[in-house]
Amino acid sequence: xxxxxxxxxxxxxxxxxxxxxxxxxxxxxxxxxxxxxxxxxxxxxxxxxxxxxxxxxxxxxxxxxxxxxxxxxxxxxxxxxxxxxxxxxxxxxxxxxxxxxxxxxxxxxxxxxxxxxxxxxxxxxxxxxxxxxxxxxxxxxxxxxxxxxxxxxxxxxxxxxxxxxxxxxxxxxxxxxxxxxxxxxxxxxxxxxxxxxxxxxxxxxxxxxxxxxxxxxxxxxxxxxxxxxxxxx
Length: 233
What we know:
The chain is 36% helix and 19% strand. The model has no long low-confidence stretch (mean pLDDT 95). It has helices spanning 7-10, 16-25, 37-47, 80-91, 109-113, 126-139, 167-170, 174-178, 190-208, and strands at residues 27-31, 51-55, 96-100, 118-121, 143-149, 152-158, 217-222, 227-232. By secondary structure, it is of the alpha/beta class. The chain has an eight-stranded mixed beta sheet with strand order 3-2-1-4-5-6-7-8, with helices on both faces. The chain has a single domain (7-232), classed as 3-Layer(aba) Sandwich (Rossmann fold). Strand 2, helix 4 and strand 3 form a beta-alpha-beta unit. The protein has nine helices and eight strands.
């Protein structure tokens, strides 16, 4: 491990070399490498997570670029997972990047998720989140959740071994949730930037056992006013 690379975070008394070693040994699965996934992937790779898995079946489109900062104009039409892997390896060659350029399904979720220590949510649909939640709960793997809409976003941690909350605590009726109208695609690019960065922070806190992770809590922010709320679940 190149300690000079991580010197600034090793200097943090809450982390130190012991915390950096925990980060280096961790395996994190990121599901969705879009608006949320871009800052999550960049900051976890920069922090030196030992292995980062990327799940995404989508391709880069021009409408992605105002918020999905992993990509550039020359990559339009190409696989997000593969483009992201290439970009992240250029950022930090010490991190092992594993790519899954296909959709997470009931058939493959347990096999893929079971290889990781933490799962982090970069997706944009209820169905995948229910699948993440139920698989993580069954396997006892923490699930770092993030959701956005327009100028607003929220972050929480579900399925932690010490927790009593899951994604179904927020949305107990799966059928009713899946039948809700789509909230729309409108979003300012900074919303996923802030929420994704917060999710990445929660991943590091879990890995390194630092601070007070958002277990049994949800943090929400409205960027129009910068009002934030921390709610016990």
